[in-house]
User: What shape does this take?
Amino acid sequence: MRLLLPLLSSLLASSVLAQNQTCTYDVRESTIRSIHNALSTRLTTCRCVVQAFITRIETYNPAINAIIALNPQALSIADSMDSEMAGGNMTGALFCIPILLKDNYDTADMKTTGGSLALADSQPAADAPVVTAFKQAGGIILGKVNLHELALEGLSVSSLGGQTRNPYDLSRTPGGSSGGTGAAIAASFAVFGTGTDTVNSLRNPASANSLVSIRPTRGLISRAGVIPVSYTQDTLGPIARNLDDLAVALNVMASVGYDANDNTTALIPDSSAGVDYTTAFSGSNSLQGVRLGLVEAFFNRTPSEETTPVNNVMDDVISTLEEAGATIVPITAPQYNSSAISSSFDTQRFEY
Assistant: This one.
């Protein structure tokens, strides 16, 4: 929190001095669509949207401890977007959408620390390609969030940022390693955020914070400009509160396309290039004909206060999927044993 106080004071002071306006827009649970509707109908301004998120961070981050740093240019960027709107220009899939980055994504205007005191003064010379894509789509990088140090574990505690807490229960962790993103988005500190996934670091925080995420196919999104853990396993992705925002964010991240600085991007087939993931929600909600594998060995079916509630929720979800037409295919092959896989195929030990 020591890192945030001077910056928050500066941002809020500039808000008052630069523009004498009353901002009442409620950003809780805001979506890309709801913010764009509010802007286009003049219910609010871009500055008010950004200011409202900053106010939430100032109010609730002391307890949650998700934010490592805020972008000191966020409000001035919002002002420039208000000027664009005044001129009739409101273009870009992410126009005026505040985004939080896991602090292993390079940013030319903010330090990139990996949550490590050893990298506290590490200043990249250029944005990661994905960050550039966000900006080109109109997104506003609001700041950087905590992570499990260098993205190596799943508790989201770091020597620089400390322990991030789950906003639904401050006695619990938000998962990890992208737990700062999960906690921040669950607390409505931004519309969506980014993470990385070497083992389970996108889906774990999404699960722990009642959010949605996806582990994209390796190579779909360039990993250049992101602190690496494992060449074989690393991938990037968004974490959001709903599938629509997740799909828009995924579109923008994947728009980088082939990147010579990440040769896995050359392996994506042409059929997967330029896909618009938002079209998946334009048709029927039926899952008729969809086959979903259920890896039974990954479930701990031993009854306990910890496992039983989780298993009950998962069983309900499986029933819901079947009711929607999906065919659930149980996978019981002995090689799908999480303990055996971890001990025999841990590439991280050799690649980090």
